[in-house]
Amino acid sequence: MTAIKETSTIQENKKIAAELCPVTFTMDKIGGYWKPIIIYHLSTDCKRYSELKKCIPAITEKMLIQSLKQLEADGLILREARPVVPPFVIYRLSPAGVGLFPVIQAMANWALENQ
Amino acid sequence: MTAIKETSTIQENKKIAAELCPVTFTMDKIGGYWKPIIIYHLSTDCKRYSELKKCIPAITEKMLIQSLKQLEADGLILREARPVVPPFVIYRLSPAGVGLFPVIQAMANWALENQ
DNA sequence: GGAAGTACTTACCCTATAGTAAGTGTACTG
DNA sequence: CAGTACACTTACTATAGGGTAAGTACTTCC
């Protein structure tokens, strides 16, 4: 998952920027190609890992997991696993994740006007 | 300015994603650390290059120019240069740039609620 | 005449993000 | 008993984005 080196200028800047600038803070959470797409697919209803994979065929397993872990760590989605075999894992949006809807909406609107 | 290699999977994906997904399209335009900050500083009034530099002390000249060029290429800001010595260049938001305001607003709101 | 201001440009390095590909363990199914 | 499904994990590679540092051409000010 490519560990983050903590003593890097870029990480320092990110932290400072995220603290000072609410927009950067939000960008940090939902930036990247896949995160908004995943959020979108979880918006209608909760989904299993394998369902997400089917919904987003272009994503690789690595990126899917990586994005899910980050979203979970940032508190935007909730992971619920049942300790059975075969594994059963469900992902759903947290309240904070649901709160992103106006943001996504605003972005989509702007894109449709300016595309 | 780090040239973009056109024959890369990542660029292909970006293009496809931006076409299919309005959110990714928007993200592409205003993603990165500095772009939202620059847009914010241009929101109140138009500014000269040197004024922007003063307003955003942490940014390097390279990143400032780079971001400005990209924003200009994407039609979000307008550059007006007067051919005098010393050079006189003014940047202002384009109508499309102004249209980003609801987006920025939504992101800021979410951040303030969830920070 | 050296410094400072103007708006850039150039060269090089480092790292996070993304992509490719293969492996893990358990259990059900044909 | 080989194959498939499930949810991951691991190792490697490539590249775009960001950072550091220095240089450019011209003119005004002290």
From TrEMBL, chains A, B:
Keywords: DNA-binding, Transcription, Transcription regulation. The keyword DNA-binding applies. Gene3D superfamilies: Winged helix-like DNA-binding domain superfamily/Winged helix DNA-binding domain. Residues 21-115 form the HTH hxlR-type domain. This is HxlR family transcriptional regulator. InterPro entries: HTH_HxlR (IPR002577), WH-like_DNA-bd_sf (IPR036388), WH_DNA-bd_sf (IPR036390). One of its GO terms (molecular function) is DNA binding.
